[in-house]
Write a structure and sequence with these properties.
Layout (H helix, E strand, L loop, with lengths): L2 H12 L7 H13 L3 H6 L7 H15 L4 H5 L2 E3 L2 E3 L13 H9 L6 E5 L5 H9 L4 E6 L2 H13 L6 E5 L13 E4 L14 H4 L15 H13 L5 E5 L5 H10 L3 E7 L5 E7 L1
Parallel strand pairs: 3-4, 3-6, 4-5, 6-7
Antiparallel strand pairs: 1-2, 7-9, 8-9
């Protein structure tokens, strides 16, 4: 079958499934699965795909009809300029989280020694280390499976020599904090609101990566309590936050003696990150 005919056929069959941009998804799947560039798909009118290839594509589209995210179907995600492996044990990185990297670069913050809490795929640290070639990062996650994926991604993106991997609950295994900065995108969805999330999120991202407790702020308190207990001066902390949590997280940080607190907006101009110094 010609690719152009297949695309028209899939557009017709997918139109009832509530996908935001089915044409873009079809072309993306063809690119990722069959290694067909967008240019080839559009301009090569004689390009054909085999019956075997069609059968493989149909498996993907059947999963997509169930609202399974493409990142989880293809076990692959893009974050800034890196490629990441993802699976059912990892939160699929979002474009909003890329703002954390922009902040550190634009603010010219010292990132020689980084601690990332709740690393998931390793996206944040790997991206930072691609930019800061001499920096080092220790990454943690409570999930052994996530740590495995983060290390796999670090190897693929050639940053593993700059990283150490620890499986622990936030700061539970740390006795000192000899770092310039702590970064984290902790779970911040209120437990009562998880059921209202998109199916792609609530059914396929790990619950532990979403559930922020009754008020969505449990992880921030745990992390900041540990920092205060361990004791550390001249430490910068940068969190991702929910768009409506800036005031609450600011207050929690002030209660833990943080100063010079700044809020940064995401690409939709909504509050997305908070930075403070202790």
């Amino acid at each position: 079958m010609r690719v152009s005919h297949y695309v028209k056929h899939k557009l017709k069959s997918l139109k009832h499934y509530g996908l935001e941009n089915p044409l873009r998804e079809i072309r993306y799947i063809l690119k990722e699965k069959l290694n067909l560039s967008y240019e080839e798909q559009i301009f090569n009118k004689d390009l054909v795909i085999s019956v075997h290839e069609i059968l493989e594509l149909e498996k993907i589209f059947e999963e997509r009809k169930k609202k399974k995210p493409l990142s989880k179907i293809l076990n692959k995600s893009y974050f800034r300029d890196i490629i990441l492996s993802v699976n059912e044990h990892t939160f699929s990185p979002r474009i909003d989280t890329e703002v954390l990297i922009d902040i550190l670069i634009e603010q010219k913050i010292n990132c020689k020694n980084i601690l990332e809490l709740g690393t998931g795929t390793g996206a944040l640290s790997i991206s930072l280390l691609k930019h800061y070639k001499t920096a080092k990062s220790i990454v943690t996650d409570i999930s052994k499976e996530a740590i495995y994926i983060a290390k796999k991604n670090a190897i693929f993106n050639n940053t593993v020599h700059q990283m150490q991997f620890i499986c622990c609950d936030w700061l539970s295994c740390f006795e000192n904090l000899n770092f310039d900065i702590i970064i984290s995108n902790p779970p911040y969805v209120k437990r009562s609101e998880i059921k209202f999330l998109d199916d792609e999120v609530k059914n396929y991202d790990p619950l532990i990566s979403l559930d922020g407790g009754n008020d969505g702020l449990v992880s921030y308190r745990k992390i900041l309590d540990s920092i205060k207990k361990i004791g550390k001066k001249n430490l910068i902390v940068l969190f991702e936050i929910g768009f409506d949590q800036a005031k609450q997280v600011t207050n929690i940080m002030k209660e833990h003696n943080f100063k010079k607190i700044q809020i940064f907006n995401d690409y939709c101009n909504l509050p997305r990150c908070i930075l403070g110094k202790v």
